[in-house]
Design goal:
globular, Rhomboid-like fold, 0% strand, 201 residues, mainly alpha
């Protein structure tokens, strides 16, 4: 398992970093046009429920999110296969967007960032722990720590959309529960494997 088996994860990382660069060069014009702004959504700009997740507020924001996506995405995409992984990511993205929107209606808050979708991917990793008993301990530990850290950070630091994180976690985890991993059997039979190990032949 490597970046070669996770083309969508790598593509998402490249796209997010490139869009942040363009946004910074345009004085954050892209964020104004595509960030999740409740009043704009109410006026019919529903696409903001999707595009917000490709905007980021700072270079630290985008790099932290992309590092987290790399850590979880390579493994989850390998297990579920790219099409199903894409559905899980999209579910987390939309779930996070809807939760953030519903909790910011009537405010002037812009919500941006891929963290709702990424927390959904970590939720999928936790679900894999339920589906692959031999890897349960390692997967649950690998998933729960970043989820708890993210939600705890959102409670302490202002202007962080914890509802977006929660919405992404629920939606991504639910889709992961409904879908079967395409490589689950070989991973479950791999003795002594961990989320970063190659499965045995």
């Amino acid at each position: 398992m490597s970046w070669r088996t996770a083309p969508l994860t790598i593509a998402l990382i490249v796209i997010n970093i490139a869009l942040y660069g363009l946004d910074a060069l345009s004085n954050h014009e892209l964020t104004i046009r595509f960030g999740l702004f409740p009043a704009a959504v109410q006026q019919g700009e529903w696409w903001r429920l999707l595009t917000y997740a490709f905007m980021h507020g700072s270079w630290q924001h985008v790099l932290i999110n992309m590092y987290a996506l790399l850590q979880a995405g390579i493994f989850v995409e390998y297990c579920y296969g790219t099409p199903r992984y894409g559905l899980i990511y999209l579910a987390g993205l939309i779930g996070g967007g809807i939760a953030a929107y519903l909790t910011t209606i009537g405010t002037q808050i812009y919500t941006v960032g891929a963290s709702g979708a990424i927390v959904g991917i970590f939720g999928a990793m936790g679900v894999l722990g339920l589906k692959l008993p031999r890897m349960r301990g390692a997967l649950l530990r690998a998933a729960l720590f970043p989820i708890v850290l993210t939600l705890g950070y959102g409670l302490i630091v202002p202007n962080v959309s914890n509802w977006g994180h929660i919405g992404g976690l629920i939606a991504g985890g639910l889709f992961a529960l409904l879908l079967n991993p395409v490589r689950g059997r070989e991973l479950a039979l791999a003795d002594g494997s961990s989320p970063t190990d190659e499965p045995e032949a």
